[in-house]
Automatic annotation (TrEMBL), chain A:
Keywords: Cell membrane, Membrane, Transmembrane, Transmembrane helix, Transport. InterPro entries: BPD_transp_1_N, MetI-like, MetI-like_sf. The keyword Transmembrane helix applies. This is ABC transporter permease. Residues 117-326 form the ABC transmembrane type-1 domain. PANTHER family: INNER MEMBRANE ABC TRANSPORTER, OLIGOPEPTIDE TRANSPORT SYSTEM PERMEASE PROTEIN APPB. It is found in: Cell membrane. It comes from Streptomyces polyasparticus. The chain crosses the membrane at residues 9-30, 119-141, 153-179, 199-219, 261-283, 303-329.
From TrEMBL, chain B:
Pfam families: SBP_bac_5. It comes from the Bacteria. It comes from Streptomyces polyasparticus. Keywords: Signal. Residues 1-22 form the signal peptide. The keyword Signal applies. This is ABC transporter substrate-binding protein. The keyword Signal applies.
From TrEMBL, chain C:
Pfam families: BPD_transp_1, OppC_N. Residues 121-320 form the ABC transmembrane type-1 domain. Keywords: Cell membrane, Membrane, Transmembrane, Transmembrane helix, Transport. It comes from Streptomyces polyasparticus. This is ABC transporter permease.
């Protein structure tokens, strides 16, 4: 188990390194391939008064004059040991984990990210609770009542759900419930620490929009999984032993059917926490995703790096948790 | 005094312009939300008067903004609203008079005792500081603090790159000085002299009669050298005004409370009525509008008006009386590159002047609440505006026949293909470009719309001549608002040949016309204010003769004032937003 | 399917794998796979309906230019007289619907929405199909190599796939689309945007298909007919192309059909976020962005692009589900 964990953690670290390297490459190599010079890259951060002097100063300050590999190394190093930056009379210290400073505003990136994590997390957790409960329930009921009206209806709705993009359902929800029938004034993120009621109230539309999409998927998956397991021999054995049907369904059927769903949930949830980009955009919520989109448009590399790494971290982390959870759900799984 | 005259001329010009823009539907219905005077203000009332006047002290004025400031550091910002807002916690040498209508463009001494004393050649400007003005920590403000503030804001782009650099451009030796962070010599730049603690002298490289306007920039708000941390100063700004920072949360919010070291007797212009000022950033734009409408906040800090999608909501009869629709001091225009074929031929540029259907552009933008059709570079709210229309067409709808005549004269009778650039993240600009593309097509000019991120628009694309030449950006959408509201302040950066820069410039049409250049330098050397003002109108005509820019829309904002907002008036000095020095609240 | 649409990493994952067993089994029965599948497929009304809609959509997209010419539908013609500028809404009820403009007009310029939907369809389908081909190509090549050769090839490809699956894809896609500037490799304007989108979307989706192909190849490799071929002296490439490929067609087809709707959503999402197809070129995602700013005054607008996306995605999903069921007797 310990060896397994260590191996997994090592793999996760490698993965994060790759992710950061790819992000780096997207920012520096792709423009280079398109024929942009470093000066052209640097000049956008100078602002109003670009002259050779100020371009050179900016290049030096942002480290753009260094070879790519050195820049990358410095970035990674800063995450672990912090770094010093000079945007004024004295150098300022950026403590680990230091994701550097915004190329444009010179603001430290890490505190900005941590400020936004609660927004995205609130969004993801609330929606996840909703979609897991509703998706799995619908899936189980559909599977048990296979072919019935309920099953057909549920599957039809689920098909709608997977075919409707969040940027349409979310928008529609927003238009209907903040404008047409203004039950909500608008949707805004209120920190849970500030006012839990408002926090909850404000996030209802985003949660429902997100959950609609996912519960449709989960209902389909659960139904398929249930149908498969309920046809297995051991279910027949369990029934033959005279177990109550509810016990058969929950303890034997659902448990096995849930295993693949947990994997998928781990991936989905990890992705979502890493930035519910579209949802945040639709509802103008200032989470990590929205932060990253703006940074991409501003070519603000340190911010994009920071958010991408945090996002990748959540994906990796959730996958790891899921793999560990397997043992609890599926007794056949052993770690070696 | 010369500068006084400027203001007088300006005031008359403005009074006319503002009256024109304020459409006069003023029925004084006795609504249910009567204010103190028992009368409800009408639409556009804040253009010429102070709406809801009050002398009640106390309460909290709340601002919300859908974005973040470029920086609240007075030495590191360019946004008009920050210039306006920063006057709450900083005192510049000179300021605009917090007053209604045209009076709001008058210059008044703030930290200085009087307006600048120019030498006869307008190259040396002397200011005497008021005595007894203190920082929030109780130390007295000296001329050295002002000098230091100018140095750090203009000469240290490695740390503070957001602000304009006019001081650098005009001060003697400004091109040599490396700024206080690199040049450790405590004497600083030689052309700003501080003979004593209350005198500051600026020595300029060339005559500059608008210097008092530069002195209104928050870059002259004093900064104590010992407290300066460069880019991090914004975290601990030292106040010299009536309010100081109680808290500052980068990118989130700031709270200002009364500064007990501020002395009303040294400050004739600030009423400082509210006890507390709160500002929140990154609020969902719809929420900001909603909060205004139901009176939860006092002001939308951006000052650019309600969102387009909420425009119908506030234009309803029940809300309309609480709106103001002032000029935003800005012009949207189509820059025509003078260096990209076939626009290097003036006839082809004239063809575009006639081809563009400005009425369609205006409609695409959202009709007349978004702005009036423009025919000059100077907007009506800028000192020096003279009304004329060199390329008049019927109903501003464009004139295909005339456009084709000029195309023929340009030896392109069948039209040609070109590129039209716009900023991808500005839907307004894309909308106007779309309308322009359609009207150009009617005369055979096929323009492909190219979109670029606004963060790099001037540095890497439209404002970068080598890119423009290489990629044949013949037509470029852009907008401009003056850094200070005079003809020179408006025109110099966008039409002066000297403003063509290898990158990041605003003269993107690369106009280098000897007559225009001469007109500008003649004008700014003129010590007679009336003559100077007249000169700007002439320069405007010279620019239009080059046909290098198609003025499209004098932009207007649709502002909304909540019931509880008191002392509300529009200031043209800050791009037609409300005056943040005056505003207070009726709420407790 | 591809993760990024805030849909899901693995929504399709469990399903296409189910195809495999079925495809193989029908082979053993020695009957024509196509015949069996077609009989099954014909019985599935939903799938047939989806198929018909897909055919219509493809025709509409392919013939969009002639259609626009014949019916005088110009997606870029402004009809500003049909729009109230202050209200930012079309004049008249139902988003300005009329005989001339059956789906109404857009609130900004009065452009005909039917014309714009048709214009958007070819962009959308071209990108989605192009991207699908890219992922199928990469996925099949790498998947077959990993599955057939095993050993270090398999380890490398599998690692690569795991890595890709852990990427924050949408973030990468946004960064990549934004960092490609006009004039990249000689392409400009719309062709460049389309090429970038095809590459970005396709490039990140290949591991999903790669995994399926790898697993399938691995099991096929051990079959008797492959053994037989090998013992007769056939080399790797021959076996791959003559023996394995025919057996991989069915799962690839199903998977590709199910990947197209995801890619349509992906394209629309990128355009919605402002890094995809740029206006004034009509695109479904772009129209939704536009509608997002106008719902206060013109609620109807969002339904036009929204339903266009919905119908297309639904049709492809039905077709894909139907194909899977038809090719996999077990799932019925």
């Amino acid at each position: 188990m310990t060896a397994y964990l260590i191996r997994r953690l090592f793999a996760a670290m490698m993965l994060l390194l790759v992710v950061s390297a790819v992000t780096f490459a997207i920012f520096f190599l792709v423009p280079r391939l398109g024929g942009q010079s470093i000066d052209e890259l640097a000049v956008q951060y100078v602002g109003k008064d670009a002259n050779p002097d100020s371009v050179a100063a900016v290049k030096k300050n942002l480290g753009l004059d260094q070879p790519l590999i050195v820049q990358y190394y410095d970035f990674i190093k800063a995450i672990f040991v912090g770094a010093e930056y000079k945007f004024g009379p004295d150098a300022s210290k950026c403590d680990a984990p230091c994701f550097g400073y915004s190329f444009r505003s010179h603001i430290e990136v890490w505190p900005e990210i941590t400020q936004r994590i609660p927004v995205t997390l609130s969004l993801a957790v609330g929606a996840a609770v909703l979609w897991v409960i509703s998706g799995v329930t619908i899936g189980v009921v559909s599977a048990l009542k296979r072919g019935s009206f309920i099953d057909r209806l549920a599957m039809a709705v689920a098909l709608l759900g997977v075919s409707l993009p969040i940027f349409f359902t979310g928008l529609l929800g927003l238009a209907l419930f903040t404008s047409q029938w203004p039950i909500w004034e608008s949707v805004d993120y209120i920190p849970i620490t500030e006012d839990p009621g408002e926090w909850f109230w404000n996030l209802i539309i985003p949660w429902c929009s997100l959950a609609f999409l996912y519960s449709a998927l989960y209902a389909r998956l659960t139904r398929a999984g249930m149908l498969e397991t309920m046809g297995e021999d051991y279910i027949r054995t369990a029934r033959a032993k005279g177990l109550r049907e509810s016990k058969v369904v929950v303890k034997h059927g659902l448990r096995a059917a849930l295993t693949p769903i947990v994997t998928i949930f781990g991936m989905d949830f990890g992705l979502l926490v890493g930035g519910a980009i579209i949802t945040e955009q639709v509802f103008s919520l200032q989470g990590m995703g929205a932060y990253a989109v703006q940074a991409v448009k501003d070519s603000d590399l340190p911010i994009v790096m920071g958010v991408t790494l945090v996002a990748a971290f959540f994906i990796v982390f959730c996958n790891l948790i899921v793999d560990l959870l397997y043992a609890a759900i599926d007794p056949r799984v052993r770690y070696s | 005094m010369k500068t006084k005259k400027v203001s007088a001329v300006l005031a008359t010009a403005l009074a006319l312009a503002l009256t024109a823009s304020a459409c006069g539907d003023s029925d004084d219905g006795d609504g249910d939300n009567n204010n103190k005077n028992g009368k409800k203000a009408a639409a556009d009332a804040a253009l010429e008067s102070i709406v809801n006047p009050s002398s009640k002290k106390g309460g909290t004025v709340t601002f919300e903004h859908s974005d973040v400031p470029d920086s609240l550091d007075p030495g590191n910002n360019y946004y008009g609203w920050v210039q306006n807002f920063s006057r709450l916690y900083g005192r510049s040498l000179v300021s605009f008079k917090p007053a209604a209508g045209a009076e709001g463009l008058e210059l008044v001494p703030d930290l200085a005792e009087s307006l600048g004393q120019p030498s006869a050649d307008a190259k040396t400007w002397t200011y005497k500081l008021r005595k007894g003005v203190k920082f929030e920590d109780g130390t007295e403000v000296t001329s050295k603090d002002v000098k230091y503030a100018v140095e750090r804001s203009n000469f240290a782009p490695e740390a503070l790159s957001n602000g304009p650099t006019y001081f650098k451009a005009y001060l003697e030796g400004g091109d040599k000085y490396k700024g206080p962070y690199k040049d450790k010599n405590p004497e600083g730049i030689a052309s700003i002299q501080t003979p004593d603690d209350h005198t500051i002298v600026f020595k300029l490289a060339k005559p500059f009669a608008d210097f008092d306007y530069l002195a209104t920039f928050n870059q002259t708000m004093p900064v104590p050298r010992a407290k300066d941390k460069g880019a991090a100063y914004v975290q601990n700004i030292v106040s010299s005004g009536p309010y100081k920072f109680e808290s500052y949360n980068e990118g989130r919010s700031a709270v200002l409370v009364r500064n007990d070291q501020w002395d009303k007797s040294t400050d004739p212009i600030r009423p400082a009525l509210p006890d507390r000022i709160e500002i929140k950033f990154k609020v969902n734009p719809t929420t900001v509008d909603q909060h205004l409408l139901n009176d939860r906040i006092t002001v939308d800090a951006a000052g650019t008006g309600v969102q387009s999608k909420n425009q119908p909501k506030v234009l309803k009869a029940s809300e309309k009386d609480q709106t103001d629709n002032p000029y935003a001091g800005a012009l949207s225009y189509l820059a025509i590159s003078t260096k990209v074929a076939p626009f290097d031929n003036i006839e082809c540029r004239k063809a575009v002047q006639y081809a563009v259907d400005k009425a369609s552009v205006q409609q695409a933008l959202g009709g007349d609440t978004k702005g009036d059709v423009a025919s000059t570079m100077l907007p009506p709210s800028v000192n020096g505006y003279a009304k004329f229309d060199m390329y008049a067409t019927d109903g501003n709808k464009g004139d295909e026949a005339k456009a084709k005549e000029h195309l023929a004269a340009c030896k392109q009778p069948n039209g040609f293909t070109t590129n039209l650039s716009a900023r991808a993240d500005r839907p307004d600009e894309i909308a106007m470009a779309t309308a322009i593309k359609a009207s150009l097509e009617k005369v055979g000019i096929k323009a492909e719309i190219k979109q670029f991120p606004s963060g790099k628009y001037f540095t890497n694309f439209a404002g970068n001549p080598s890119y423009v030449h290489e990629h044949k950006l013949g037509l470029m959408m852009t907008a401009w608002g003056a850094d200070w509201p005079t003809g020179f302040g408006f025109l110099d950066q966008i039409v002066n040949g000297a403003a063509i820069k290898p990158s990041g410039g605003n003269n993107i049409q690369e106009l280098d016309d000897p007559k225009v250049n001469q007109g500008l330098s003649d004008g700014i050397g003129m010590t007679d204010a009336a003559e100077r003002t007249k000169k700007w109108g002439e320069v405007d005509k010279l620019v239009m003769e080059t046909a290098s820019a198609v003025p499209l829309i004098y932009r207007k904002n649709l502002l909304y004032r909540p019931d509880s907002a008191a002392n509300v008036t529009v200031t043209q000095a800050y791009l037609g937003m409300y005056d943040y020095l005056l505003i207070s609240t009726n709420k407790n | 399917m591809t993760a990024p649409i805030e849909t899901t990493a693995a929504s399709a994952e469990a399903q296409p794998e189910a195809v495999l067993a079925g495809a193989g089994r029908s082979q053993i029965e020695g009957r024509s796979l196509g015949q069996i599948a077609w009989t099954r497929f014909k019985r599935d009304k939903a799938a047939m309906a989806g198929g018909v809609v897909v055919v219509c959509l493809v025709l509409m997209a392919a013939l969009s230019k002639p259609i626009q010419a014949i019916f005088d539908l110009d997606p870029n013609k402004l009809n500003q007289d049909l729009v109230d500028p202050a209200l930012q809404a079309p004049k008249g009820a139902w988003g300005g619907m009329s005989w001339d403009h059956p789906l109404g007009v857009d609130p900004g310029f009065g452009r005909d929405l039917l014309a714009r939907v048709i214009e958007g369809s070819w962009v959308s389908l071209l990108v989605a199909v192009g991207a699908t081909l890219v992922s199928v190509l990469i996925g099949v090549i790498l998947g077959v190599m990993a599955g057939y050769y095993g050993g270090w090839v398999d380890s490398v490809v599998s690692r690569l796939m795991d890595t890709f699956l852990a990427f924050p894809l949408l973030l990468f896609a946004i960064s990549l689309s934004a960092s490609v500037q006009d004039g990249f490799w000689g392409l400009t304007g719309l062709p460049l945007r389309i090429a970038v989108l095809i590459f970005v979307i396709g490039f990140f989706a290949w591991p999903y298909i790669g995994r399926i192909v790898r697993a399938q190849t691995m099991s096929l490799r051990e079959r008797e007919f492959v053994e037989a071929s090998r013992s007769l002296g056939a080399r790797g490439p021959f076996i791959i192309f003559r023996e394995l490929m025919p057996n991989l067609v069915a799962p690839i087809l199903v998977y590709a059909t199910l990947l197209i709707p995801t890619n349509i959503l992906f394209e629309a999402a990128l355009s919605f976020l402002g890094v995809g197809i740029a206006p004034p070129q009509a695109s479904w995602g772009g129209m939704l962005t536009d509608a997002a700013d106008r719902y206060e005054s013109d609620l109807q607008y969002m339904f036009v692009p929204g339903l266009a996306i919905f119908i297309t995605v639904l049709a492809f999903n039905l077709l894909g589900d139907g194909l899977r069921d038809a090719l996999d007797p077990r799932s019925k």
